What does this fold into?
Amino acid sequence: MTDPVPQATLPQSNPASPWRRYAAFVGPAISFAILGGALWQVQAVDWHKSLVVIEKTPLIWLVLVVNYLSGPIGDWVIFRKLWKIPLEGIFPLIKKMIGNQILLSYVGEVYFYDWARRHIKMEGSPFGAVKDVAILSAIAGYVMTLLMLAVAWPYISKFGLGIDSRELWWSIAIMLGTGLVITLFRNRLLSLPRADLFFVLGVHTVRLTANTLLTAVLWSLMLPAVPLSSWLILSTGRLLVTRLPLIPNQEIAFAGALTFLGGPVDQTHEMITVIAGFITAMHIVVFIAMLLLDLAQRERNA
It folds into this structure.
C-alpha cells in the first residue's frame, strides 16, 4: 500500500503590517493639515494694505512668484537627476515646501517620501535620497552663513547689530560641529554617490543665492526710496541672522542691521508683513489648485 501523496501547501500571505495599512492615509492627512494651517494663518493678513502695494507695482507679483518657486524648482532639478522624475513632479515638491513652512520643518519631506515611494520606480527605498537632500540643504545654509559671517564680521564686531556675542559663538560652534560630524560620518549618514552629493550641494547653494538676490529686488520694488545696494546687504544680513541656530531675537538683529544701514525700520517691518501675507495667500491658492488637479486626474483615470 503506497503512502498518500502529501498535499502541497500554498504559502499564506502575511497580513498587512500596520504601516502598510495606514500608509495610504499619510499623504492625504498631511495635505489636509497643510490646508488647515494655511487657512488659519490667512486670517491675519491685511488684504487692503496688500492690494494697495500690488496696485502700485504689479511687477512685484512676477518677482514674488519666481522667488516662491525657486525652492521647488531647485528640488525638481535635484530629483530629476537622481530619479528622472517627470515635470509634474514639481507639484509634490511645492506641497513639500508648503508643508515645511506652514506646519513643521521636515513634514514636507515626509509627504514627498510617501509620494515618491508610491509613484517613482527605483531600486531600493527613496528615503536615503530624500534624507541626503534635506541634510545637504542644511549644510549649504550653514556654509553660506559662515561665509557671510566672515564677510560681515568687521560690522558685527563693531556695531553688534543686536546679536549677543555668546549666542553668536555658540551658533558658530554648532554649525562647525554639525559639518564636522557629517564629514566624519558621511559614509554612514549619506547614501548618495560623491558626484551626486556635490551636485545637490551646488544646486542648494545656487538656490540660496538666488533667493537672497530676489528678496533684495522685491524689497527694492516695494520701497524704491532705499537703494538696491542697501537691500542686497540687508537681504544677506537677514539670511545670516535667520540661519544662526541660537539667535532667538532674529527680528531685533534684523532691525539693528536696518538701523545701521539707515533704512526705514517701520516701513520695512510693514513690508515684510505684507510679503508674508502674499506668501500665505499663494500657499492657499496653489494648494487648492493642486487638490482640484488631483481630483480631476483621478476622475479621468476612473
Notes: The two ends are 59 Å apart (CA to CA). The mean pLDDT is 75. The chain has one domain: 26-301. The chain is about 80% helix and 0% strand.
